[in-house]
Amino acid sequence: MNLLVKITAAILFLVIAFYYLYFYITPSVTVINKSDYVITRVNVTLPESNLNFGSIELEQANTIHYSLSQHDGSYKYSFNIGGKLIAGACGYLTNNELNKRFVITVNNKSLVDCSQ
């Protein structure tokens, strides 16, 4: 009985460790809303993926992890804020970038700042 408990605990530990390792390794895009408006229909397009963030409330953020397998290209964003459509591109991504964290911040005057 004691051996069964140890094996179960070890398997549970490994499953949890692999779960957190997956999110540590895979790259992600985070959109932060620091504007005076709710951002609606946030969309970030990658060469091999389309990330739909939905809407982001005031002073909130949303993060989506994406596949490591990507062609070289830029992050293209589009969103509605204060009744206006804002679109553009920033940053650069390549294939198999481990643990890359890309952040798009929308400021008060609907200015977009991108950083990694």
How are the secondary structure elements laid out?
Elements: H1 2-25, E1 28-33, E2 39-45, E3 50-56, E4 61-65, E5 73-81, E6 84-93, E7 101-106, E8 112-115
Parallel strand pairs: 1-7
Antiparallel strand pairs: 1-4, 2-3, 2-5, 5-6, 7-8
Characterization of the model:
With 116 residues, this protein is α+β, with helices and mostly antiparallel strands. The protein has one helix at residues 2-25, and strands at 28-33, 39-45, 50-56, 61-65, 73-81, 84-93, 101-106, 112-115. The strands form two sheets. Strands 4-1-7-8 form a four-stranded mixed beta sheet, with no helix packed on it. A four-stranded antiparallel beta sheet has the order 3-2-5-6, with no helix packed on it.
Q: Briefly, what is this?
A:
By secondary structure, this protein is an alpha+beta fold. Helix content is 21%, strand content 47%.
Helix-strand pattern: HEEEEEEEE
Helix percentage: 10-25%
* Strands ordered across the widest β-sheet: 4-1-7-8
Strand content: over 45%
- The count of β-strands is 8
Low-confidence segments: none
Gross morphology: elongated
Q: Major sheet: size, sense and barrel closure?
A: 4 strands, mixed
Q: Mean pLDDT, nearest integer?
A: 91
Please compute the radius of gyration using only Cα atoms: 18 Å
Give the class from helix and strand content and strand pairing: alpha+beta
Number of helices: 1
Distance between the first and last residues' Cα? 50 Å
